Amino acid sequence: MMTESNKHRRRGDQLQNDIYAATYRLLETEGYSAINFTRIAREANTSRSVVYRYWDTPFDLVFAAVQQRMQQSEEELNNLDFDRGCLRDSLVYVGQYFILESNNGPFRLFKMLFSEMINQQERERTGQMLAKATGANIKMMDYVLQRAVQRGEITKFPPKATKLILFEQIRYTFMLENGLVSDQKLEEIVDHVVLPAILYFSKQ
User: Cβ of 165: how many Cβ atoms within 10 Å?
Assistant: First the structure.
């Protein structure tokens, strides 16, 4: 157990990171209903007054914790190579990564945030977070599309809506299949929807 002196020695980023870690751990193991400032303070070995100093409501804390994990995921994204030698295989790989992140990463917690939104400000903030996630998806697609242009597989980039089809189809399948997207289904999405759409716009 952390002593009182250790509690007071933690400052700034380290203290916030410990609180975020406790919040994220509870979200993953017990869900949003477990989040309250008394519980978080105990899990993070700090005082409730410290938690109140940074966040006004449990929703604010959850929002900030998920934002932090999204930032970490974005930094990891910069170090990944999604090129698999051809456009089709690269699209499948992007889909596999997106499915993995949706099941295990911070994006999995969006559902919790949406279910707890109670006012317009919270809807706006969560919408901004989703817009940032969409930007990360576009970044992945632009990477594999640029490689496809360089290989001569396509002549130009499709519009934004076409770039997002892969992710939208996966989300739709999540809803239909209770959060499951098989390898076969992913390949069907790529082969019968995403790749034909990209190639269509390349020929225009």
Answer: 18
Q: Tokens for 158?
A: 């499709």
Distance CA 56, CA 53 (A): 8
What six digits make up the tokens of 110? 């969006």
Measured in residues, the chain has a length of 204
The token duo for 156 is: 């130009």
pTM for this entry: 0.74
Which pLDDT tens digit goes with each residue over 102-129? 777 666 666 666 666 666 567 777 777 7
Structure-derived torsion over alpha carbons of residues 151, 152, 155, 157, reported in degrees to the nearest 10: -20
**Residue (of 133, 138, 94) closest to 110 by Cα position:** 133
Whose tokens are 């295990």? That residue is 104
Using alpha carbons, list the distances in angstroms from residue 153 to 99, 145, 202.
25, 9, 9
